[in-house]
Design a protein that fits this description.
54 strands, 3% helix, 881 residues, 4 helices, mainly beta
């Protein structure tokens, strides 16, 4: 009999608890020698030749040599070799490491075990064995026949991806099968797992474990949940199987069985999951998800969802909804020069409201107002300035139930080149060699704001608008007078359309617009020329912490010109007059036949004026810290950018000066607090008057062609906005140099499993390594139309705080500073890390979506259905505050 540890639960190599020696004595016919027997002891590496590969195995020969090493000593007694201290034996592709190994050359047996450290009383040096490409197997002791490849393992522990097999006994029958007894199948990495399925008897194959009676055990306590037999996955490839449903209750639809379905492993690169939910009132939901991944090329997920719900009275037709989501990402190195990506979210406008269970009552999904999709393909040609982009896009307004489609949009462009320059030039560029030219072609087919109910009607295609737009920019940039930058440009744009509009009056109050098919083209050009320079001003200080302040100004003045394209001399401009009929007066209107086209027509009104802009930046130099040995003053940005711009049009007959625009941004606290702002000033006077409309007195404002400073007043502020944001966490105050990020190509199996879990449910991921995180975003806007003023003043607060190493609380809310109240979207989430389990408590304390949700589940993806959920449906609260 071999010496083995039989105490279950004493297999933790790193355990701090001493282990009692409960092994049985060795009764095999070999006399174990004393380690002090000098005449037969050696140390170091030794090769035991037990047979050459000169005969076939079935004739009694061995295929390889047994190679042994031991750090302490190796003792030989007859056909036995005893290895002490970090012993190692290899035979072909079999490897064995342990503190003690006995080699029986005659019977081809290896026995290995650990030993009890005399100081710590810990069981150390456990055997670790590995056969070929199989996963390493750790155990308390093992007996292995290296000829027949059969063996017996006590208290094993092995891992395959997220799965662990530990405790009990394993008897290896052949290369493909092993007998199990009282093993624990778990996803917990602890030596004594927090939970697991105890398989009393079973057969392990390469692809699965065929189990006899098995039961659930939590914290070493058997739970009265047992099965007479079962199948457990035990391989790297995908395995098909049924998905057990989750029971629950919905206030409007009744009791349900949720997510009953089937998982189909199509191949190593794709799998299909189909699930359904049935409610006791006859409603049902179906979801089918295709996950695919080629590690070095692409990965993606395609989901089709359908729901039929009986929210009305008995006998009313059900409400039917569908939704499709698709995400696809391509590895940039898979196909250099071309890219393909997809992000699709489309369906009926009421899908999320009628299918709250399918999205887990997610507040963000339930309250969203828009759905957007994009499928794009890009192509570049190496060594050329050309590139091509083709995309399909979708935008859906869930409130108005309208859909906008672009099927497709493409862009072919040529980067700017110097046509007069020479590749072989070695001297400085001449002025004409600096001339640049580019080309851009854009085309689209668009369905704009189509009602959802009309989307699939045949008449909808006749509403499609299409067109092509060509653009040719020509430019020249020169340095003149040493300090000035001169730039000039000429832009020509031509648009091609395959339909245009015509308008006429059926009567004075009835305007009719007709779409006329046929090719139409229109072109326009614009030219500009200007100068810019930089002005520097520095203020220095001899004493104190502040050493200098530098102000950099970049003034720009340019002349812009574009012709007047509103004249009726152009064939695309039309005028219409209504017929005078009592009681309607004559109505006159001018329009362009390209008014409703995808790219429009040339802008109206002649422009010949000066554009003025002034950019400013402000920075300071401060004394270095006393710990800084470089003694170099530190630069601090006080104002990163402040821009002021306007335009004066000499060709206009009135209101020549455009509104004055101001914008800027800066940061404080070492770039932790970011602030941006913008404003608009009206330089003209505004007259306010009263009128009668529908029997009521109404005030109105009318612009007056007179500058405000002519009356001793400053321009009127008509709009202003400011936003600020800051995120506070330890990484912000103590940044660290991070290692190269993991990618889909270099991540290990454990990281890949965690990524799959996050992708499956991003809300379930909680980072307990960060003790706190606070995000504050402030927004203020002001609008003034002289008659009335409007403003918004909100503060968004979100973040999380780690109460202990295992407890974390997350929160998010919006506070309206003007109304002094919290948003109804306020939510809290409490997370508890239970090692291989996770507890999450979500709470929306007030508002229409007031609810709570408690979930206790296993972290491992393979056992995601092993969970307990308690939910309060938001519809159970009819009255809220």
């Amino acid at each position: 009999m071999v010496n083995v540890l039989t105490a279950r639960g004493q297999s933790n190599v790193n355990s701090n608890n001493p282990v009692t020696d409960t092994t049985k004595r060795d009764t095999t016919k070999s006399k174990q020698p004393s380690k002090g027997k000098k005449s037969s002891a050696t140390s170091g590496k030794k090769t035991i030749v037990v047979g050459k590969d000169t005969t076939k195995k079935n004739q009694g020969g061995l295929e390889s040599e047994v190679v042994t090493t031991a750090e302490d000593s190796t003792i030989y007694v007859g056909d036995f070799a005893y290895l002490y201290g970090k012993a190692r034996v290899t035979y072909g592709d079999f490897e064995l490491d342990a503190d003690y190994i006995r080699v029986d050359k005659k019977n081809h047996l290896l026995f290995a075990k650990g030993s009890i450290d005399p100081k710590t009383k810990h069981y150390v040096g456990r055997p670790i064995s590995k056969q070929g490409k199989e996963d390493a197997l750790e155990s308390d002791s093992l007996l292995f026949n290296y000829d027949t490849k059969k063996g017996h393992v006590w208290n094993p522990k092995t891992q395959q991806q997220e799965n662990y097999i530990t405790h009990g006994e394993i008897k290896k029958l052949n290369d493909d099968e092993a007998a199990y007894r009282n093993i624990i199948f778990t996803t917990c990495s602890k030596a004594d797992p927090d939970f697991g399925i105890v398989i009393t008897k079973g057969i392990g194959e390469k692809k699965q474990i065929i189990s006899g009676p098995a039961y659930l055990e939590i914290e070493g306590v058997p739970i009265p949940l047992a099965i007479p037999f079962g199948f457990f996955p035990k391989q790297d490839t995908r395995t098909s199987g049924f998905i057990l449903p989750e029971p629950g209750e919905d206030q409007r639809l009744g009791f349900y069985l949720r997510n009953f379905g089937y998982y189909l492993g199509l191949s190593d690169y794709a799998c299909l999951t189909t699930m359904g939910t049935y409610f006791t009132n006859g409603s049902y939901e179906l979801t089918s998800t295709l996950d695919y991944k080629d590690r070095y090329r692409y990965n993606g997920t395609l989901t089709l969802s359908y729901g039929s719900h009986n929210y009305g009275l008995a006998g009313d037709p059900p409400t039917r909804d569908f939704n499709i989501t698709w995400s696809h990402t391509q590895n940039p190195n898979a196909n250099p020069g071309s890219t393909f990506s997809a992000s699709v979210n489309a369906g009926t406008s009421t899908f999320y409201q009628n299918n709250p269970l399918s999205v887990g009552y997610n507040l963000q999904a339930l309250t969203q107002n828009n759905l957007r999709s994009s499928i794009a393909y890009g192509r570049t040609w190496a060594g050329t300035p050309f590139n091509l982009t083709i995309s399909l896009s979708h935008s859906q307004d869930l409130t108005n139930k309208t859909v906008t489609l672009q099927l497709p949009t493409f862009n072919f462009s040529m980067a700017t080149i110097n046509p007069f320059d020479s590749k072989d030039r070695v001297t400085e560029q001449k002025w004409y060699q600096k001339i640049t030219i580019g080309y851009n072609l854009t085309g689209t087919n668009t369905l704009n704001a189509i009602p959802e109910s009309q989307l699939f009607e045949s008449s909808t295609l006749r509403k499609m608008q299409n067109g092509l737009e060509h653009s040719i920019p020509i430019g020249l940039n020169l340095n003149v007078f040493k300090y000035f930058q001169f730039n000039t440009s000429l832009n020509y744009t031509e648009r091609w359309y395959f339909q245009s509009i015509r308008k006429h009056y059926a009567r004075a109050d009835s305007l009719v617009t007709d779409t006329v098919p046929g090719f139409q083209r229109v072109g326009n050009y614009a030219a500009s020329a200007g100068f810019s320079t930089k002005l520097y001003g520095t203020l220095t200080f001899n004493d104190g912490w502040l050493r200098a302040i530098r102000h950099v100004m970049t003034p720009t003045i340019s002349f812009n010109y574009s012709p007047d394209y509103t004249s009726l001399n152009y064939g695309f401009n039309k005028s219409i007059v209504s017929t005078a009929t009592i009681p309607y007066p004559v109505v006159y209107q001018r329009y362009s036949i390209f008014d409703q086209s995808v790219y429009g027509g040339p802008s109206g009104g002649r422009q010949a004026g000066i554009s003025l802009s002034l950019d400013n930046s402000l920075e300071a130099k401060v004394r270095p810290k006393s710990t800084d040995t470089s003694t170099v003053p530190k630069k601090i940005s006080l104002l990163q950018d402040l821009s002021i711009s306007t335009f004066y049009n000499f060709a206009a007959d009135s209101f020549r000066l455009s509104p004055i625009a101001i914008s800027g941004h800066t940061s404080f606290l070492n770039n932790k607090l970011n602030v941006s702002f913008n404003g608009t000033f009206n330089p003209y006077e505004t007259a306010v008057g009263d009128s009668i409309s529908n029997g009521q007195l109404v005030r109105y404002a009318r612009a007056v062609n007179r500058y405000t400073w002519q009356d001793g007043r400053l321009p009127t502020l008509t709009g202003f906005g400011i936003s600020a944001g800051i995120s506070l966490n330890p990484k912000v105050f103590h940044p660290q140099v991070l290692p190269a990020p993991n990618t889909l190509q270099n991540m290990n199996p454990e990281q890949a499993a965690k990524l799959a879990l996050i992708n499956n449910d991003p809300n379930a991921f909680v980072d307990f390594n960060i003790p706190y995180n606070i995000s504050l975003n402030y927004s203020f806007s002001y609008t003034n139309n002289v008659i009335n003023t409007f403003n918004t003043n909100t503060l968004m607060i979100s973040g999380d705080v780690r109460l202990t190493d295992l407890w974390k609380v997350a929160y998010t809310t919006n506070f309206d500073l003007r109304a002094r109240q919290l948003s109804s979207a306020t939510s809290f989430t409490i997370n508890r890390n239970l090692h291989c389990w996770a507890l999450a408590i979500s709470w929306l304390p007030f508002g229409y979506y007031k609810s709570y949700n408690v979930t206790l589940r296993v972290n491992a993806e393979i056992l995601q259905d092993l969970k307990l959920t308690k939910r309060s449906d938001y519809t159970s609260s009819q009255i809220f505050q």
